[in-house]
Specification:
By secondary structure, the chain is α+β, with helices and mostly antiparallel strands. 45% of the residues lie in helices and 23% in strands. Among the domains are: 122 residues, Substrate Binding Domain Of DNAk, Chain A, domain 1 (Sandwich), CATH 2.60.34; 108 residues, Substrate Binding Domain Of Dnak, Chain:A, Domain 2 (Up-down Bundle). Strand 8 and strand 9 form a beta hairpin.
Length: 368
């Protein structure tokens, strides 16, 4: 029901839920040779909210406290202990002192210890104001005219008086008389509290487990790296043996190939004999020994392949440049043809600017 009420996807009615402890809980402590126990919670104790308990020990000495179920048979064997607390160090004091241990009980069934305090009962001297008791006096009612005249005289007197010159005089006038009084005061000091619970680990155990986990992780990583180094060496040796009659055939001399095959054969034999289970550093060393003979041959192949790649890229760049130049020439020729065609069209469309002959001009031409 509580989980359903806390869930954002479900809706329940607003019931008032009150948790019960179900089982009685006993608190026992051991202080030196003294051992004592008492019941902390009874059966079916109602816990509508978290409740705190203060357990006070009359003596201020190191103590071990244990919280357990009163009836061990009501729970599984070995699960009757709820929590254990230890106060290893308690300071000495010349004043009356005692210990106080705070424990808690939550509605969801979580019990445990919270804090330990060292309480000293000291004396201190403080100032206490003196309260004066004034006797009650019976006053007779004054006559109206006399009372009014008396009030007038008091107002005139208050107006004629000058205000005080300094604040010190006001404080001295208003400060009540005091007396010294000795009181007892409890001074609390928080103590170191070591808490352990069944099924849980202490801080030291958690730190030790974390260190063990880091060490196992490092060991696993080293095992994987060693296996990879061994497999890499074996694959590299077989590759070199095959490349002698393959791609490397044209890039090495017979003496180089003989030396390379010899080191590859010895390394293969070593891998299946004493090199079956060695460290990563030894596999790396064998790899470097084989590369001393294989790298010169491989680098010649790499140089040839790089030269071929450079030539191919140069050819591509040259072809690309030629295509761009051809494209630019074609665009220039096309533009020139368009301009020529545009000029001829303009000449054909221009009108004749000569004027037609007149009658006198025509007659003159006939006479001649």
């Amino acid at each position: 029901m509580i989980c359903a009420r806390f869930s954002p996807t479900s809706q329940t009615r607003g019931y008032d839920l009150i948790e019960n402890t179900g089982r009685a809980i006993t608190l026992s402590y051991s202080m030196g040779n003294k051992e004592q126990s008492f019941q902390l919670l009874k059966d079916n104790y109602s816990l509508p909210k978290m409740k705190a308990f203060n357990s006070t020990f009359p003596e201020a000495k190191p103590v071990r406290v244990e919280m357990r179920y009163t009836d061990p048979e009501s729970v599984c064997i070995g699960n009757d202990i709820i929590a254990q607390a230890n106060i290893p160090e308690v300071p000495s004091s010349s004043f009356p002192s005692k210990l106080r241990l705070k424990s808690k009980a939550e509605p969801h069934g979580i019990f445990g210890f919270v804090q330990a305090d060292f309480i000293e009962e000291k004396e201190e001297t403080v100032e206490v104001p003196i309260v004066e008791e004034k006797p009650a006096e019976l006053e007779k009612p004054a006559e109206p005219e006399k009372a009014q005249s008396a009030d007038t005289e008091m107002k005139e007197a208050s107006q004629s008086e000058a205000p005080p010159n300094t604040d010190t005089e006001m404080k001295e006038a208003t400060k009540p008389p005091t007396r010294l009084e000795t009181r007892k005061v409890n001074v609390e000091t928080k103590l170191k509290l070591e808490i352990s619970q069944p099924g849980t680990m202490s801080n030291k155990e958690v730190e030790a487990a974390r260190m063990d986990e880091c060490e196992m992780k490092r060991s696993d990583a080293l095992v994987i790296a060693t296996a990879d180094a061994k497999n890499g060496l074996e694959a590299f040796v077989y590759s070199c043996t095959e490349q002698v009659h393959g791609e490397w055939k044209e890039f090495g001399s017979p003496d180089e190939f003989t030396a390379l095959q010899d080191i590859c054969s010895k390394t293969t034999q070593w891998l299946y004999d004493e090199g079956d289970d060695v460290s990563k550093e030894e596999y790396d060393g064998k790899m470097e020994a084989v590369k001393v003979f294989s790298e010169p041959i491989r680098l010649r192949l790499v140089a040839k392949l790089q030269a071929e790649e450079d030539a191919r890229r140069a050819k591509i760049e040259e072809e690309k440049k030629r295509v761009e130049e051809q494209k630019a020439a074609e665009e220039a020729a096309k533009k020139a043809a368009e301009e020529s065609t545009k000029g001829e069209t303009k000449m054909e469309t221009e009108p004749d600017t000569q004027a037609p002959p007149t009658e006198s001009t025509s007659e003159t031409m006939q006479t001649d």
